[in-house]
Amino acid sequence: MSREVLFSVTAKDCRFDYYRGSGKGGQHRNKTDSAVRCTHIESGAVGKAEDNRSQHKNKQTAFRRMAETQRFKDWHKIETARRLGRYVGIDDEVDRQMKRIRVEVKEGGKWVPDPAFT
């Protein structure tokens, strides 16, 4: 069974911010921007790294940590479904279900239907 690549996420899909790391390290830590923050633009997932003195290694670590976040995993599932055509109709179903929502507010210790939603 062969697998086909549906899509890939690369460094081009991310924004990298470089800054000085915090904590111990002395003179070297205070003069170099070796800490890295990787933000995936579409999902908003963020990964950070300031473990190494090497900016390059921190960039790789930050990218990996970003890809391991729950926010990125959720985006990945939705994007995969969308590209496979399984996402079609979900918006219609959400709209249909939203019409069935019942909103209640507490008045005098009792829950009653909210007049703004009836």
Automatic annotation (TrEMBL):
Q: Which GO molecular-function terms appear in the entry?
A: translation release factor activity
Residues making up the signal peptide according to the UniProt record? none
Question: Which UniProt key words apply to this protein?
Answer: Methylation
Q: Where is the Prokaryotic-type class I peptide chain release factors domain?
A: 7-106
To which protein family does this belong? Belongs to the prokaryotic/mitochondrial release factor family.
The answer to keyword Protein biosynthesis applying to this record is no
| SUPFAM superfamilies in UniProt | Release factor
Q: Which residues cross the membrane?
A: none
The protein's superkingdom reads: Bacteria
The organism's taxonomy opens as: Bacteria, Pseudomonadati, Pseudomonadota, Alphaproteobacteria, Hyphomicrobiales
| Name of the protein in question | Peptide chain release factor
Cite the InterPro entries for this sequence: Pep_chain_release_fac_I, Pep_chain_release_fac_I_sf, Prokaryotic/Mito_RF
Question: Does the keyword Protein biosynthesis belong to this entry?
Answer: no
Q: What is a single Pfam family found in this protein's UniProt entry?
A: RF-1
User: Which species is listed as the source?
Assistant: Maritalea myrionectae
